[in-house]
Design the sequence.
């Protein structure tokens, strides 16, 4: 499915808005190649159940445009300001194939 140009343009504007998007740097774990990218940070709580107990933990996730980063991989590094994070797990694309969602852990 090819994304609608209007929707892609809207996503570009959202990522460019300073109150939504943030400048970051992606660094490949395998080639040490690096590239500036724009991200939208999210930090939802994650609930994990273990037997009868429920644990709430902090998470760090970012959304990245495919046009900024075509092939992120687990183990790559994302640097936002002075904070460094490792991509953990498999990156997930949205339905329109415009946005990656990356689950990050501290580096």
Sequence:
């Amino acid at each position: 499915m090819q994304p609608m140009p209007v929707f892609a343009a809207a996503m570009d504007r959202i990522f460019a808005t300073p109150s939504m998007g943030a400048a970051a740097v992606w660094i490949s774990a395998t080639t040490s190649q690096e590239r500036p990218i724009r991200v939208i940070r999210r930090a939802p709580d994650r609930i994990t159940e273990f037997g009868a107990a429920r644990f709430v933990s902090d998470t760090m996730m970012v959304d990245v445009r495919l046009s900024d980063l075509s092939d992120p991989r687990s183990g790559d590094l994302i640097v936002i300001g002075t904070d460094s994070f490792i991509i953990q797990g498999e990156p997930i694309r949205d339905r329109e194939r415009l946005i990656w969602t990356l689950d990050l852990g501290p580096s």
User: Anything to note?
Assistant: The radius of gyration is 15 Å. The beta strands are 22-27, 34-42, 45-50, 53-58, 60-65, 77-80, 83-87, 92-93, 99-106. The chain has one domain: 5-106.
